[in-house]
Amino acid sequence: MAPLKPNNTFCHLGKYYYSMVVITIFSLHLVCFSFTAAANINNYNGEFSAHLIGKNSSNSPLYNHKNHKNFRRLAGPEMLQSTVATDPDGGGHLMKLSIGTPPFDIYVIVDTGSTLLWIQCQPCKSCFKTKQAIFDPEKSSTYGNITCSESECRLVDEDSPQNYCKDNPQATCMYHYRYVDKSYSTGEVAKEAITLKSTSGTDVILKDIVIGCGQNNSDERAGEYQMGRVGLGHGPLSFISQISPYVGGKRFSYCLVPLDTDPKIESNINFGNGSEVSGKGVVSTPLFDIERSMNKYYVTVRGITIGNEFLPFNSTETLLEEGNMLIDSGSTLSYLPQEFYDRVVNKLVKTLDPKLELINYIDSKNTTSLCINAATISKAPNMAVHFDGGGKLQLTTERYLFRLEEEKLVCLGIRNTNRKAFHSNYTGVFGRNVQGNMLIGFDIDREVVSFKPTNCINIPRAGGANIATHPFSIFSTCLFYLLLIVNLSC
């Protein structure tokens, strides 16, 4: 069949006028596309994201990972992206990144309560057991020790053994970190290349990141895939501070799935511009004096409401101490000062069925939990945390209670701070258990932290700057090609 002839009206148009029509439509199409692209790009400008993934996910350490060969720095609107897995044994969230050249995959606990990124290194004098290989700095071409005379060494925490530096400024800088759960790491301070993936799937290298290369480490609670910790505190050596030039500022947010979630479910962690927490339901409170908070995130809690009764953080005889609650993703459970803890427990017990039996359960690691001798409980009151500034954050029972399936117990996920490991009996810990299904944003530049109850399982995954298709863009594209076809037919 012969092709249809075009209407002569188009063919009789002067070449000049016809060309102007095509150019005009094409220009409008480009303008429309540019504005649409810019609008979407601005939403992601200077941000990168990482997933918090389940232990059986294809992104978890249970699967084999291939090293990547192409690297570049973060540029323009592109975000970085990596994976973070739920620790099968330790209960924490493991962030995946690659270290060294060639890149070596590592999985480190996400910890807002510390600063330094450290991993277990060869030669390892004493390391906790792991199924993962241990990083060997001699096999990396980008690894370099930091000496005592370098400025980064003076930024290492006060607990680190720096006295020897006075006599030997060219000696290798050392660090020593000890945590509330009695775990610790000691080793060399160095600079190394860190590799993360961008949202477009390209590997991005961050050069000269200060890390700790731990050669003497202990962690009784470490899972078999844990290889260290990534400190997300706000100190100068924290991961947040070091990557801030790449992502547009010192801010990040994460959304942790509850601890009992299917391990295949991923949750997110976002860094830089675009990671701000906003919208309906957001509760914000000031971060306690950044300069005095020892590189950690402290907020002021006024009290807790249980049912309809408000319990002040401090008893009436004492003044409220500001910065009395540490937000710590590295702590599985939450803690309250002994006196406040006793009042909270007494009120909770009064709201429960008096027929329920309360027991002190001691686990295999000699840790005591207050538990209810029942597989389930039909009713428990909601809690609400009252922050400085008037914010009120609701805590459902799933956040402060947890089940021990095999023992058929329901236990309180809050403990007291009457332990030697705590530096203060007046400060509590807002642990990982109460942070589940909560989008939490830390804005160090503005000195504020924000909470937003969120279904972290269904939260949109970080992705590239998807260019939304504008209706006019579709129309102009079709019309442009139609006129082009007509012109060729003429």
Helix and strand composition category: alpha+beta
Question: What's the main sheet like?
Answer: 15 strands, mixed
Distance between the termini: 19 Å
Q: Helix coverage percent of residues?
A: 10-25%
What's the total count of β strands?
28
H/I helix tally: 6
Query: Averaging pLDDT over every residue, what do you get?
Result: 77
Give the overall silhouette: globular
Determine the strand fraction and express it as a percent band.
25-35%
Uncertain ranges:
1-6, 8-13, 29-45, 54-58, 60-77, 462-478
**What's the Cα radius of gyration?**
27 Å
Characterise the protein shown here:
The chain has 490 residues and is of the alpha+beta class. It is 16% helix and 31% strand. It contains 6 helices and 28 strands. The chain has helices at 8-11, 15-42, 239-247, 338-351, 397-400, 471-489, and strands spanning 47-53, 80-86, 93-99, 104-111, 118-120, 144-145, 174-178, 184-198, 203-218, 228-231, 251-255, 267-272, 283-286, 298-299, 301-306, 309-312, 325-327, 334-336, 358-362, 368-372, 383-387, 392-395, 401-404, 409-412, 414-416, 428-430, 438-443, 448-453. The strands form 5 sheets. The chain has a 15-stranded mixed sheet that branches. Helix 2 runs antiparallel to helix 6 (471-489). The longest helix has 28 residues, at 15-42. It is globular and about 65 Å long. The model is unreliable at 1-6, 8-13, 29-45, 54-58, 60-77 and 462-478 (pLDDT under 50).
What are the defining features of this structure?
single chain, 490 residues, alpha+beta, 15-stranded mixed beta sheet, 4-stranded antiparallel beta sheet, globular
